[in-house]
């Protein structure tokens, strides 16, 4: 409880104000200093100063603790009380009738807790196909997003290189040399990984390219390094590629993803599956919609300790504003 400190002085001057102020520093329970002036020409005055900001927080926490107890005691969905915390102890500097600062915390809207009910099921629609190639794409998965997404999958390359084997290792190559694979309409690229005496031992295919056929001894062309263009590879399998969008084709999240024999993840649980990895036509599209679940949750009125950060966040915002006002 706040209390008043009495100070008797001969006259009211600047030093009196400082003496009065020091009487409340560090003491959260003293917020008013009454100055008795021993001078017939001046009247007694009451000075009020703001508390230190850390004491503002302490007072609010004490009041909030009592509110939590009251709410948890009822813990009822029918409890419609409006709980207001008024921190009367927090005051501003008062001279010539200056109005003290007060803080009211109406926490009616932040003590509701959401109790999980039975969740509804998200839905993913069947695909709509547009194009002239093989129509074998199907949508699937369990959508976990919280907004409706309009997915669109489009073939952006066909007959790209999927797997290869080393044909001839060539001569004059070094680790890091790069090359393109001949015969494609969009050339695939690769990089030398290991070599022995200039003969390539292992390599990677970095981009799959477009328009290839399964063939042995396919020539390559060096694009960096000292290779003699005599590296050859055997193309074993091919795959078409796709890009995908979640906004109906306005923008695309990824491109040149090679098709595989299985469900391929797009976003938030949604998938696309192709029955075959080749045979499609560039520009073929599959569109489908993913809709989030609409589970029925129950709102109950009680202070939920597991969600206390919500209450604390709202209180902190109000307390910070009050600190600024009191210390200003």
Tell me briefly what this model is.
16% of the residues lie in helices and 40% in strands. It is built from three helices and 20 strands.
Structural description of this entry:
The protein has 328 residues and is of the alpha+beta class. It has helices spanning 14-22, 53-74, 308-327; strands spanning 3-9, 30-37, 45-48, 84-87, 103-106, 112-115, 123-124, 128-130, 137-141, 149-166, 178-181, 188-196, 199-207, 215-224, 232-245, 254-258, 263-267, 270-274, 285-291, 298-301. Strands 7, 8, 10, 11, 12, 13, 14, 15, 16 and 19 form a ten-stranded antiparallel β-sheet that branches. Strand 11 (178-181) and strand 12 (188-196) form a beta hairpin. The radius of gyration is 38 Å and the shape is elongated. The two termini are 24 Å apart. Residues 74-99, 107-119 and 297-304 have low confidence and may be disordered.
Descriptive terms for the model:
single chain, 328 residues, alpha+beta, 10-stranded antiparallel β-sheet, 3-stranded mixed β-sheet, 3 helices, 16% helix, 40% strand
SSE blueprint and pairings:
Elements: E1 3-9, H1 14-22, E2 30-37, E3 45-48, H2 53-74, E4 84-87, E5 103-106, E6 112-115, E7 123-124, E8 128-130, E9 137-141, E10 149-166, E11 178-181, E12 188-196, E13 199-207, E14 215-224, E15 232-245, E16 254-258, E17 263-267, E18 270-274, E19 285-291, E20 298-301, H3 308-327
Parallel strand pairs: 1-2
Antiparallel strand pairs: 2-3, 4-5, 6-20, 7-19, 8-19, 9-18, 10-15, 10-19, 11-12, 11-14, 12-13, 14-15, 15-16, 17-18
């Amino acid at each position: 409880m706040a209390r008043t400190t009495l100070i008797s002085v001969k006259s009211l001057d600047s030093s009196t104000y400082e003496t009065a102020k020091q009487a409340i520093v560090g003491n959260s329970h003293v917020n008013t200093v009454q100055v008795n002036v021993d001078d017939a020409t001046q009247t007694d005055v009451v000075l009020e100063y703001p508390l230190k900001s850390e004491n503002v927080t302490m007072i609010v926490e004490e009041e909030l603790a009592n509110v939590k107890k009251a709410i948890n005691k009822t813990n009822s969905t029918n409890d419609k009380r409006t709980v207001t915390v008024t921190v009367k102890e927090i005051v501003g500097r008062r001279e010539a009738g200056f109005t003290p600062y007060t803080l009211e915390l109406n926490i009616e809207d932040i003590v509701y807790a959401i109790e999980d009910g039975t969740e509804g099921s998200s839905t993913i629609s069947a695909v709509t196909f547009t194009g002239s190639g093989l129509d074998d794409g199907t949508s699937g998965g369990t959508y976990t997003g919280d907004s409706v997404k309009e997915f669109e999958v489009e073939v952006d390359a066909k007959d790209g290189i999927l797997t290869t084997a080393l044909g001839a290792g060539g001569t004059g190559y070094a680790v890091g040399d790069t090359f393109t694979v001949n015969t494609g309409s969009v050339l695939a690229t690769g990089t030398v990984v290991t070599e022995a005496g200039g003969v390539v031992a292992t390599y990677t295919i970095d981009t799959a390219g477009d328009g290839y056929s399964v063939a042995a001894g396919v020539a390559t062309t060096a694009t960096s390094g000292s290779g003699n263009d005599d590296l050859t590879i055997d193309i074993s399998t091919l795959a078409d590629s796709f890009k995908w969008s979640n906004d109906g084709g306005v923008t695309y999240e990824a491109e040149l993803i090679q098709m595989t024999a299985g469900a391929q993840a797009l976003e938030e649980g949604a998938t696309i599956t192709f029955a075959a990895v080749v045979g499609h036509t560039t520009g073929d599209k599959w569109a489908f919609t993913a809709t989030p679940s609409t589970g029925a949750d129950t709102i109950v009125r009680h202070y939920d300790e597991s969600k206390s950060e919500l209450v604390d966040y709202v209180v902190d915002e109000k307390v910070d504003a009050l600190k600024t006002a009191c210390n200003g």
